[in-house]
Structure formats: C-alpha cells, structure tokens
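Protein Record: Sequence and Backbone Structure Tokens
======================================================
Tokens: labelled as protein backbone structure tokens, with as many entries as the chain has residues.
Question of interest: how does this chain fold, as expressed in backbone structure tokens?

___
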Amino acid sequence: MGILRPFKYLLPKRFRSSVPIVSVVRMEGVIASGRAGFRSSQMNMETLSDPLDRAFKVPEVKAVILLINSPGGSPVQSSLIAKRVRALSDEKEVPVFAFAEDVAASGGYWLACSADEIYADTSSIIGSIGVIFTGFGFQELIKRYGIERRVYASGDHKGALDPFLSENNDDVERLKKAQEGIHKSFKDLVRSRRFGKIDASEEKLFTGEFWTGAQALELGLIDGIGDWRSVIRERFGSKVKFNIIPQKKSWLKDRLGIGSRISSENLLSSNGWVDTAIGNIEERLIWGRFGL
C-alpha cells in the first residue's frame, strides 16, 4: 500500500481519504536578515520561504497554522513574510490560523496579522505595535583608552549614528521621521487585517504597549484563547491530521548544536566573533523586554 501512497491524489475524490490535513509552520525567534549567531534563533524571508511554500502545496490542505513565538525585529522582513503568507493563502484559497506561544509582539504580531484568525494563551504577550531602533554609544569608552576614531566619508550624513561618535540632533530627528513612516505602515496593516474587530480609533493600541492574551482578546487583537491542537480539532474534527513542516538545518548546526546559518567567516574571523557577540546581546535585549 505504501507504494501507491504518492499516487492517491490522482484518484477521484470519492476514493481518497476524507481525513482533513492541516499544515503547521513554526515561526520562532527574532526577525532579522542575515545569519544568526551561536545558539541564537532568528527568522527571515529566506528561512521561511521554503517551509511556507511546502505548507500550502500539500494536496487538499484544509488550513495552514502559524506557530508564532517572536518578540519582533526587522519591519522589512516582517512585511515580506506577512505578504508571502497572504499571497499563498489567496492563491490557494486556504485559510491561515496564527497561534501565539510565549510572545507575538511587534514584528511577531505583524506576522500574526497575516492570518485570518489569531489565537493565544491567556498569558501570552501580544501587541507592542510600535517601532524601536536601538544602539550603543562607545565614544567615552574609546576616549578612556586613548583610542582615536577616524572617519572618512563623502556625504554630510554618511556617518550618522556612528556608535563611536557623539549623537547629532539632526540625525536623531531624521531617524524619528523614518520611524513614523514605518509605524504608520504597521498601524495601517493592523487596522486593515483586524477591521471590525478592534476599535481603530483607539490610539492606545498603537503606543507600543503590550498585553496578555486575555487582555488582547478584550481589545480585539486576537480572536480567541486556546492551543492550536484543540482549536483546530474543534474546527475540522478530531481526525484531523497535522502535517508539521520541518525547517532545513545546516550540517554544522546539526552537529554542533549552534545557531542557524553561521558562516565560515564568522567562525574564523575576529570581526565575525564580535558581530556575533553583539548580535546575541541585542537579541537577548529584545526578548528581555517581555521578561523572556
């Protein structure tokens, strides 16, 4: 019988199994482009493109589940992933259900809004609909050790926000204007995807504040409280089959148990180690905002 399994979808519908199939895609970690560092977990359009395609290509799939556990990250990558989810859902005419685990905040909530329905645990962290840029200032540190910073650039603002130089008020104002544009895009997305479920005029939804799952339900940011297995079985029946879509891992990650997509350059160069260390600190800070 196993030999015939690949050909079962060529049979007339009346001869096929009536068991509903639902694909499950995990979206976990900070949303960021590029490569992750040691023991870090991050996602972007590159890492999720293939799993999403496979999830929607399953013959006769009834729905796709997004298991989200993310404190956010890159607004660009969040937008790209969300748009891809919507494009596949519309093309295949397959509904999407998002389930927040510990946190679906900032970019994580952006991803959740790509679903037709959003669910969470009562204690999940939901929201943080805002934009934040972070950085460090090392100008006093290098001064203490007698290190001279030399910058050669063409263009008045090419060295803007350099962590080894003092802040420039004009550069900060330009950054704030950029943030306002990104924030508007985020708010427009939420108002569109949650239309009729939230009070779109309620500005407190867009201040960057976050809430528990129970509070988010009252605000209309999610559709219900529940775990993904229970909700989907109630919707599609107890015999529903879950098709877990695995993400491809590198041989190095499997052998060493380290973060995804680590490049040989990062392993061998001193700059790579520094970048990895700073990246992991920033990632820890992002999770730490939500007590995780």
